[in-house]
Amino acid sequence: MSETLKVIQTPIAEELIRFDKYFRAAMKSDVALLDRITHYLIKRKGKQLRPMLVLFSASLCGGITPGTYRGAALVELLHTATLIHDDVVDDSDERRSFFSINALWKNKIAVLVGDFLLSRGLLMALEHDDFQSLKIMSRAVKMMSEGELLQMEKARKLNIDEAVYFDIIRQKTASLFASCCETGAASATDDVEKIEWMRLFGEKLGIAFQIKDDLFDYGQDDIGKPRAIDIKEKKLTLPLIYTLNKASWSERRKIINIVKNHNTNREKVQYLIDHVYEQGGIAYSTEVMYDYLKEAEQILDNFADTPSKISLIELMQYAVKRKK
C-alpha cells in the first residue's frame, strides 16, 4: 500500500484493523482447500478503497457502528467474488500482480470460490437482519452484471456513443462505489437525504475513477494494467469515443477497422493512440473526469468539516492521480 493511502486512512486506521479481523473471520471455512484459497486472497488484498468508503461515509453521517463493519465486509466479499468471476470470464492469469485463482486452481474451483464468497456475504447480512445493506448491495451486483453485458453487446457492433458509455460505467463501476457510500451512511443514520447525498457522491467518484482507468490504456508501460488492453478487447472508452465523434467519415472507418481487425498490430494500435492524443481525446476525458470529481466534492459541502471529510477529499484526489 502506498504512503499516500496510509495517510488518508489515518482517521479510520483503528477501524480498518477491526474491519480486517471481521473480514478474515467471514472468510473462514471448515473445508481445507477453501480455507487455503481464502487465506491466499487475504494476503493479496488490494487498496481497500471500498471498505474505506463505507467507513468514511458512516463516520461522516453520525459514526461507525457494528452494522458499518458488517456492511464493509459485505462489500468486500461481493467485490472479491465478482473479481474472481471476472478473471474466469476474461481468462486472466493475473490479478494485482499475483496469480489469479483460476490460474492456480483452474476455472471450476475459481467459480465455486466466488459463489462461496457471494453466499457468505448474503448469509452474513441475513444473520444480522441487515436488510437495507443487502438490498443496496444486491442492486449493485445486478447493475454491475448488466453494465458488463451491455459493454459486451456494444463491443460487437462498436456503436457506443457518450450516453451509452456513461450508462455502462455508471452500472459496472460507479454502482459499487455508490453502494459503498450508501451502505456506510445507512449504517449510521436514518436521514434519507444524507444517505442519498452519499450515494450520489459515490456514483460521481466511481465515474471519475473509471475514466482514470480508461486513460491508463493510453499511458506508459509501467502502469497497473497492460497498455491498449481496452483496444484489444474492442472497448470504446471516452478518449476514443471523443476522437471518433470528431473524425471524418474516412478517418472514422480507419479507426473502427483498427479496433475491429488490427487491435493486436503494434504499429496500427500506436497510430490509433497517437491520433487520440492529437485530436484531444485525452485532454477532453481528463477534463470530464475532473468535472465529476468537482461535483462529488460539492456534495461533501453538505457535511461539517471533520478529519473523515478531509480524508475523503484526499481520497478523491488519489483516485484520479494514482499510477495504477
Protein topology:
Layout: H1 3-8, H2 13-27, H3 32-43, H4 49-60, H5 66-90, E1 94-95, E2 98-99, H6 101-127, H7 131-157, H8 162-186, H9 192-216, H10 229-232, H11 238-246, H12 249-261, H13 266-278, H14 281-300, H15 307-321
Antiparallel strand pairs: 1-2
Helix pairs in contact: 2-5, 4-5, 4-8, 4-15, 5-6, 5-7, 5-8, 7-8, 8-9, 9-14, 9-15, 11-14, 14-15
Key features of this structure:
77% helix; Farnesyl Diphosphate Synthase; 15 helices; two-stranded antiparallel ribbon; single chain; 324 residues; mainly alpha
The fold-level CATH name is Farnesyl Diphosphate Synthase
For the residues shown, what is the average pLDDT?
86
Number of DSSP strands? 2
> Widest sheet: strand order?
1-2
Strand content: under 5%
The CATH superfamily appears as: Farnesyl Diphosphate Synthase
What is the CATH C level class, in words?
A: Mainly Alpha
Tell me, briefly, the overall form.
globular
Structure classification: mainly alpha
The CATH architecture comes to: Orthogonal Bundle
What sequence of helices (H) and strands (E) makes up the elements? HHHHHEEHHHHHHHHHH
Tell me the number of structural domains: 1
What is the alpha-carbon Rg in Å? 20 Å
Approximately how much helix is present in the residues? over 70%
Word description of this protein:
Helices cover about 75% and strands about 0% of the residues. The protein has a single domain (about 5-320), classed as Farnesyl Diphosphate Synthase (Orthogonal Bundle). The protein has about 325 residues and is mostly helical. The chain has a two-stranded antiparallel sheet with strand order 1-2. It contains 15 helices and two strands. The N and C termini lie close together (about 10 Å). The model is unreliable at about 220-225 (pLDDT under 50). Helix 7 runs antiparallel to helix 8 and helix 14 (about 280-300) runs antiparallel to helix 15.
